Amino acid sequence: MSAATLAAIHARLATIPEPCSLAMGKPTTIADMGLVEAVALADDGAVTVTLCLTDAACVHFRAMQAYIRDELMAIDGITAVDVRQTLETLWTPDRVRGAAA
Prior knowledge:
The protein has about 100 residues and is α+β, with helices and mostly antiparallel strands. The protein has three helices and three strands.
């Protein structure tokens, strides 16, 4: 798979809303919130997205999985999408884009 496909994946992830931010009236994306831990793209077009959620018991995880899967499957060349959650890394506020260091 090409660098262009990987760039398209990251661009699409940067548009996906973070559900709790919508509920709080301060919309942001999963990318800006720092939830995207890793993206892996296999030669056969299979994508694995690993999220670092703000809460390991996030009630929105299943809906986010479906949303991300639908968005990424619309990209030419993507054959499968697996969205996982890492339990090895804790989310902290410094992951937010633009957060003070």
